Amino acid sequence: MDKNKIIAAIIVIFIIALTFSENLSNNELSISSPNKTLKLNIYNENGLLSYSLDKNNKTIINPSLLGIETDQFKLISNLKISNIEKSSINQEWNQIWGEQKTIIDNHNEVKITLSSNDNNINMIVRFRLFNDGLGFRYEIPNSGEIKNYNIMDEITEFNFAQDSKSWWIPAYAYRRYEFLYANTLISEISRDKFSELVEYLHGDRIGPEAVQTPFTVQRDDGITIAIHEANLTNYSSMTLMADGTKNMKCDLIPWSDGIKVRVKNPLITPWRTIIVGDSPSELAMSTLTLNLNEPNKLKDTDWIKPGKYIGLWWEMIGTNQSTWGSGPNHGAKTDRVLEYIDFGSKYNFDGLLVEGWNTGWDENWCCTGEGESFGFYHPHPDFDHKKVSKYASEKGIRIVGHHETGTQIQNYESQMDSAFSYCQENGIRVVKTGYVNDGSQNIKRIDQDGNIHKEWHHGQYMVEHFRKVLETSAKYQVGIVVHEPIKDTGLRRTFPNMLSREGARGQEFNGFMPKDYNNKPNHTTIIPFTRLLSSPMDYTPGIFNLKDYRYHSPDNRTINTEHHIPSTIAKELALYVIIYAPVQMAADLPQNYEGHPAFQFILDVPVDWEKTHILNGEIGQYITTARKDINSDDWYLGSITNEDARDIEIKLSFLDPYKTYNATIYKDPSDGGWETKPEEIIIKELKGISYNQYYKIKLPKGGGQAIRFSPIN
Ligand code: NOJ
Ligand code: CA
Predict the structure, then answer these.
(1) 338 alpha carbon – ligand 1 mean position (Å)
(2) Phi, psi (deg, nearest 5) at residue 453
(3) 61 shares its domain with 184
(4) Domain check: are 366 and 433 in the same one?
(5) How many folded domains does the chain comprise?
(6) CA 168 to centroid of ligand 1, rounded, Å
(7) How far apart are CA 116 and CA 93, in angstroms?
(8) 3-state secondary structure of 679
């Protein structure tokens, strides 16, 4: 039997469809999640439609309004339900690559059809209730005579029942998603508060007070909730407007003319999602976002291969010894690239990222959307692409391409087909794209009449651009890793060439920011419960040279002592397990790896997993993750802490009870930690480990621990 038939054979689909023609009884309808821990209530009172959500018999979302306002009609008031259909699904599907092979899609659905007395347009609101949360979306299959319309507002509310602790980054701010997180009560959210607690937000306060999603809160009883969206297609991205209370409301990033969404008929909005767990670690195990996306659309996926890569990169962004642009310190020179190929091939890396290989870097490429236009199939004269490709292919490694657009969108779109076809010709299977622009509403769009408009990075214009790149790259069998992306909403299920993204503060901030401004030790203990809920991340872990690594400038090669990365080598290793990515970088310079005993962990750690368990975690404090390799019986574990030292005891019950393992442990010295001995690491073997044992992980301040468990029988 072929793979698909086996999958089909194990799929059990159970659908019950009931159709009612009358209204809700007592104006209220409830459904429960398959395991009964979540209850969704839907109300149709006084012509309004609203919902609330309970977890373990406690209300977590109070009644919250639903509705859509367009420039031609409104579906908010005088709403009357004409039909209700219920159905249930329980099925499994397999990922092409991921944190776990098999995903269970078990949900109860209720589909409500309604119309407003104000017009004759039918709207469907479709709710899906899973054990790990709720998704709902609006659908307008047919708007009758009205062919074109624009959404001016989406009414969706998220009225939290408790004013709880929340972790957030601001929307309508200059650096996209690249901020450290604020931790405040929901009612305290504002850009002024962010300026006070995290980073001073300069510039005008344009746009409302709002936060990006995933937006995570934890209640006093431990229940942890994240609001996000799934399958962001033909729409603008949702942020959450804060009004100084515990209530939040959907806020769609507008086009420059104020329209929120230019509708492409029929309207199907992204899913609005409320992910719920009894604890942060349960929340982080959610598969709801993927379940609310469409199945894989690519016919052939054999060419999509997870892998690890090195890069001619840290020497620009981290050590500051080379430049992207022309000149004596230009990094991407043919001979230097060949040396990297030798190193990568010696250690069986799948890819080598080369930045600065093309034209366009010489005039103010950063960070205003202006400057010289990049050429995406135009190698710099220092870089002999043919020679490099030939050598790479002989050595069994692929070049990872790089398309920094500087947000000159039209320049990129006009070259896109040729650019990806050029990749295919040169054996490039993964491209890292980039959208650096540090203005707020500053992405240039030139309309048909040649007028210039400035768009937001997260509005519909950019959502559609990112989709074009994803679809075009797939055509040429190229996977993409997007820096300065639109947030992920689970599209990797539909387009498995959507490999990874940045979309948060990554390691690069440790590279170029002095110590008072780089990522704090707690940052990597926050993102697993916020940003990483949405997708893989190209964080670029693996820096071994954590102190005294950066020069003042490429021409002044004296050490700038202002830089010290708040991590340890053991923590850098643990990040390979904690931060999931199907293409994972070993970010440091080859000479910092060569001969280093801890490098072995980077060489061993897989990027595609059969199973994942998040064993424990508190947001902003610590997390421990265990994953099983998809290609062997090995298990890997990563545990990290914030600025506090702590001991964490874990049960090894995730291991196979019928096997005995040897464990290779990579840990900080007990008197170590990010400040004192960041570059010291202890590597120890433990023999004869089994699933019923307990193990105590000792983490010094800002430290971590990484373990490989290999079965001996
Ligand atoms: C910002 C990206 O995050 C970084 O990885 C890249 O090197 C620079 N832009 C240049 O494209
Ligand atoms: Ca970036």
Answers:
(1) 22
(2) -125, 150
(3) yes
(4) yes
(5) 2
(6) 23
(7) 38
(8) coil
Which of 437, 462, 484 finishes a domain? Answer: 484
Q: Quick one: 208 and 89 in the same domain?
A: yes
Domain membership flag for residue 261: yes
Closest to 129 measured CA to CA, from 31, 60, 217, 216:
31
Task: Using DSSP, state whether 402 is helix, strand or coil.
Answer: strand
How many Å is the maximal CA-CA distance in the chain?
78
Domain that residue 439 falls in: 298-306+342-484
178, 315, 508, 610: which is the annotated catalytic residue?
A: 508
Locate the ligand 1 atom nearest the alpha carbon of residue 484 and give its number: 3
Establish if 402 belongs to a structural domain.
yes
Q: Kindly state if the Cβ of 434 falls inside 6 Å of ligand 1.
A: yes
- Ligand 2: distance of its center to the CA of 486 in Å? 12
User: Which tens digits make up the pLDDT trace of 634-693?
Assistant: 999 999 999 999 999 999 999 999 999 999 999 999 999 999 999 999 999 999 999 999
400 close to ligand 1 (CB < 6 Angstrom): no
CA end-to-end distance (rounded Å), the chain: 30
| Cα–Cα nearest to 484, from 508, 464, 457 | 457
Ligand 1 atom closest to 540 (CA): 5
Judge if 75 and 55 occupy the same domain: yes
Ligand 1 touching residue 404 (CB < 6 A): yes
Reported as a single tens digit per residue, the pLDDT across 301-317 is 999 999 999 999 999 99
**Residue 471 falls in the annotated catalytic set:** no
Verify whether ligand 1 is closer than 6 Å to residue 317 (CB atom).
yes
Model confidence, pTM: 0.96
Specify the residue for token string 């890793």: 481
